[in-house]
Write a structure and sequence with these properties.
alpha/beta, 646 residues, 7-stranded mixed β-sheet
Length: 646
């Protein structure tokens, strides 16, 4: 499209928190900024001034002041705010006096319960005392095997309060999958629940809890949410009983706050460690300045404690927003379940995925005409690329006045590199702009910056929330190999992007699963956006399979809608829509009907492992079954790969 689908009004710009921030920066440094692009250029070129400005704007509470902003800018190993001691939770604690609701929980059956700011402070203070009494100290690990409920947030905050390290895993994971992650950490305390409801069915997890507890040999105490409390465990009610002051332990700026696990599918999941200070600064910037969320907002992102977006949503508490927890299915009892919750809870910022939007389109849902979404100020999208058609559908069916903040980042930095802002237009199928303080660029194979063409997404200067290390990576080799081998001193993220002439970014898909036919690189996302617009196609997966003799096979697997047959007419229709919306060179060599598409548990299609399997790598070395939502589908693809070899 030649025009944006949403353009900020003068009132949007005037009232935006990012405008207030820019005004304060201008007063401090004697600067003025004509637009967001000018502010971003300054922020990435003057990292020390920018992050000091973020520190000052949010009045960060520190026990000891830093001796510098950036002691070392080397990547990896940048040293942020050396000498500072603080605690992430202090920024949450300062919101308590504003009163009202801190966490709103919505069950799948529609029942609700609220946790006020006073209740949150009391429970966190009490649980922190319980953990300390259980022998948990600074640097010890507390882990959760929990659904997305308020207790999960309380457990994290109590853990951080005493300087211990938090990690969690949703109960959609089996005990063995959870053990693959949490077992690496040698935790002292396990916090868990009986089970959760999803899709109208209750999933009892008591047997999995027993197995997980048995596998975690270092666990000394178990705290259980729910009616079923096993012998030797403490009930949540007892663990949070009494009135205790919420007192936090100051820790160094880069002291570990949590360990989040990658959605990678080979070997044991990588434990990525982030520090208190880096997360605090990055999340304040991302939530308040980029997303324009503040104390008057209700922030709901459909997520799970296994996914970094859970951590991102908790950051709403840093700015005094009410956050909404929901552990059910986004499509139950009807496809519009998330819109229903948004209307009922007066949500101002709703976060979801391209997959959910597409499901709503195909179910003929009309959110704004079927629900009162008058409180909604923005929709956030992440997980994969949002097609232009889906973005336009959101404008037509949610409201042209509601910007779509499509973001891209990752568990690696537990934030985004690029996304939206209240002062920047939204272009269909594009991410509006790089985030402030993010030195984003696009490199070709030679490490040269490119514009208007496909290149590798790179970050050329450090961010405070880059990992302080990987867990059990003593010499740092796994960390360096993950991001810095391709371009020394530059973070290579693994996405193909195009930077447009108006400053936005188009994400084409993972570069390690790039389609490279006859030397021409193509992104899989471009094909998905075209094919999945067809009503006959539920989902699709394309692979670029290289053979030892130099051959190249590019199959497209499609999941068909009920009652649809993959005949010659539909094959022609698929090829035509790919040619029209991508190009003729994107047309696959073969179109194959599949029973389903396997994903990581954070919703990413299993492109890389399946490509490896088709290229002859043993199934056991290509992916970790516990990280896949439907391992039986991988078996189908393995069999198909063997058929192709014959």
């Amino acid at each position: 499209m030649t025009e944006p689908q949403w353009t900020p009004s003068s009132e949007d710009i005037q009232r935006a928190r990012i405008t207030d921030f820019a005004t304060q920066v201008g007063q401090t440094y004697g600067l003025s900024f004509d637009d967001y692009a000018a502010l971003w250029e300054w922020s990435k070129d003057n990292l020390e001034q920018f992050w000091q400005a973020v520190w000052d704007y949010f009045d960060i509470i520190s026990d000891e002041d830093p001796t510098a902003v950036l002691g070392s800018a080397e990547m990896p190993g940048a040293q942020w705010f050396p000498g500072a001691t603080l605690n992430y939770v202090e920024q949450v604690k300062r919101q308590v006096d504003r009163g009202g609701i801190a966490i709103q929980y919505v069950a799948e059956d529609g029942t609700e319960r609220a946790l006020s700011w006073d209740d949150l402070a009391r429970q966190v203070g009490a649980l922190a005392v319980t953990l300390t009494s259980a022998g948990v100290g600074t640097g010890d690990r507390v882990v959760g095997y929990l659904p997305n409920i308020p207790e999960t947030v309380v457990a994290f905050l109590a853990t951080a309060t005493i300087g211990a390290i938090w990690s969690s895993c949703g109960q959609d994971y089996s005990a063995s999958a959870a053990l693959d992650r949490l077992g690496q950490l040698d935790p002292k305390v396990l916090v868990t629940a009986d089970g959760y409801s999803y899709g109208g069915k209750y999933h009892d997890r008591t047997a999995d809890v027993t197995s997980l507890r048995a596998g975690l040999a270092t666990v000394e105490s178990v705290i259980q949410v729910g009616e079923h409390v096993t012998e030797g465990s403490m009930s949540w009610t007892d663990a949070t009983a009494g009135a205790h002051e919420w007192v936090s332990t100051p820790v160094p700026f880069d002291h570990p706050l949590w360990v989040v696990f990658s959605s990678g599918t080979t070997g044991l999941p990588k434990g990525i460690v982030h520090g208190h200070g880096g997360v605090l600064l990055e999340h304040l910037k991302s939530v308040a300045l980029q997303s324009d969320i503040g104390p008057e907002d209700t922030f709901f992102w459909y997520t799970s404690p296994s996914w970094m977006m859970w951590n991102f949503q908790v950051a709403g508490l840093l700015v005094g927003a009410t956050i909404v927890c929901f552990a059910g299915s986004p499509g139950f009892p009807a496809p519009d379940a998330l819109w229903s919750i948004a209307a009922r809870e007066r949500v101002t910022f709703l976060g979801t995925s391209p997959g959910y939007v597409l499901a709503c389109i195909k179910a003929d849902v009309h959110p704004s005409s079927e629900h009162d979404l008058s409180a909604l100020r923005a929709v956030g999208i992440t997980g994969s690329s949002l097609p232009a058609s889906s973005s336009i559908w959101l404008a037509d069916n949610v409201g042209a006045h509601v910007p779509v903040f499509s973001i891209s980042g990752g568990t690696d930095v537990v934030s985004a590199f690029v996304g939206g802002a209240r002062t920047v237009p939204v272009w269909p199928g594009e991410l509006s702009a790089p985030y402030l303080g993010v030195a984003l660029d696009s490199f070709d194979e030679r490490g040269e910056s490119v514009r208007g063409d496909v290149g590798e997404l790179v970050i050329t200067k450090p961010m405070p929330s880059m990992p302080i290390r990987f867990w059990n990576d003593v010499d740092g080799s796994r960390y360096r190999g993950a991001y810095f081998d391709s371009f020394p001193g530059v973070w290579r993220h693994g996405d193909w992007i195009t930077r447009t002439e108006h400053g936005s970014v188009v994400v084409h898909g993972r570069s390690d699963s790039t389609l490279n036919r006859n030397g021409i690189r193509m992104g899989s996302a471009d094909i998905y956006q075209a094919v999945e617009s067809l009503p006959e196609i539920v989902e699709s997966l394309v692979l670029g399979v290289e053979s030892e003799n130099g051959g190249y096979w590019m199959p497209l697997f499609v999941v068909l809608a009920d009652g649809t047959e993959l005949d010659d007419e539909l094959r022609r229709k698929i090829k035509d829509v790919i040619t029209e919306h991508a190009s003729a060179r994107h047309v696959p060599d073969e179109i194959i009907a599949a029973p389903g598409i396997p994903h990581t548990r954070t919703g990413k299609k299993l492109e890389v492992p399946l490509k490896k399997i088709f290229q002859g790598r043993a199934q056991t070395g290509a992916f970790d079954r516990t990280s896949v939502d439907a391992p039986e589908l991988v078996d189908w693809f393995v069999a198909r790969g063997r058929d192709h070899d014959r």
